């Protein structure tokens, strides 16, 4: 894996984290306990910071980045991902905030300033425009995204289970290392 500092700040990796050898990470990144970063993921905390929560998994080919500070946006847009989040294959998360127990479907894009509350499904290929707020407990789909329907109790339970499935998988990979 490629883990590099940027302007003297290096990624901080928590306990029992799996990072695939092909992943690339630069700068101000914190990855918490039991998270996993899968093949060909790029995470750049160069012009702002990235935080990845416990038991969160970022799947193959995803790109995670931030937006620098500016006159219009004095704090810029960091990328903050909560606990028990599943980020599907080839997603783009850019300067947004994701709460806890979220599934971001394959190929989805979540843009600057968007806030995704807890317990949300974002469908595959969905585009979340800048500064949108996705309300807790719903499925969002489309380009641009629309709130489709309320999640069932079993779908909400699956959000946590999806994250736990990846904790088990990353533990199997760590055991073989």
UniProtKB/TrEMBL annotation:
CDD domains: LbH_gamma_CA_like. Pfam families: DCTN5 (PF21711). It comes from Alteromonas arenosi. SUPFAM superfamilies: Trimeric LpxA-like enzymes. This is Gamma carbonic anhydrase family protein.
């Amino acid at each position: 894996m490629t883990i590099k500092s940027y302007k003297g700040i290096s990624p901080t990796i928590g306990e029992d984290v799996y990072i695939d050898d092909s992943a690339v990470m630069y700068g101000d990144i914190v990855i918490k306990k039991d998270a996993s970063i899968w093949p060909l993921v790029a995470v750049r905390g160069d012009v702002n910071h990235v935080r990845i929560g416990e038991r969160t998994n970022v799947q193959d080919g995803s790109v995670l980045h931030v937006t620098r500070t500016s006159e219009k946006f004095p704090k810029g847009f960091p990328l903050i991902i909560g606990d028990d989040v599943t980020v599907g294959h080839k997603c783009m998360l850019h300067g947004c905030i994701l709460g806890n127990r979220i599934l971001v479907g394959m190929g989805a894009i979540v843009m600057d300033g968007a806030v995704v509350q807890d317990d949300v499904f974002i469908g595959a290929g969905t585009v979340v425009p800048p500064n949108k707020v996705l309300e807790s407990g719903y499925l969002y789909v489309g380009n641009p995204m629309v709130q489709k329907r309320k999640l069932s109790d079993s779908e909400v339970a699956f959000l946590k289970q999806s994250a736990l499935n990846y904790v088990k998988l990353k533990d199997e990979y760590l055991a073989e290392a």
